[in-house]
Write a structure and sequence with these properties.
Number of helices: 3
Strand content: under 5%
Helix content: over 70%
Largest sheet: none
Order of helices and strands: HHH
Radius of gyration: 13 Å
Number of strands: 0
Length: about 70
């Protein structure tokens, strides 16, 4: 995954995004939720570890929240 973000998208995030759509989550909810996750990781890992994880966490936030507003939230 570290060398291939497309693999992360194809093998994990598309599937997770589909689940979130089926539960009618809003893009704002997903962005807020995963931003809190990223902030929690920042607080709990060493700074060097966070620097390595941050691009993937930010990519995950962007990817998962890139969904249309549900017909019924």
């Amino acid at each position: 995954v570290l060398n291939d973000v497309q693999l992360l998208d194809d093998q994990v995030l598309v599937w997770v995004q589909t689940l979130f759509k089926s539960f009618h989550f809003t893009p704002k909810f997903l962005r807020d939720d995963f931003t809190l996750l990223r902030d929690a990781v920042r607080k709990r890992v060493r700074p060097r570890t966070y620097v390595l994880c941050e691009p993937f966490l930010t990519h995950t936030i962007e990817f998962l929240s890139d969904i249309p507003e549900p017909a019924r939230p």
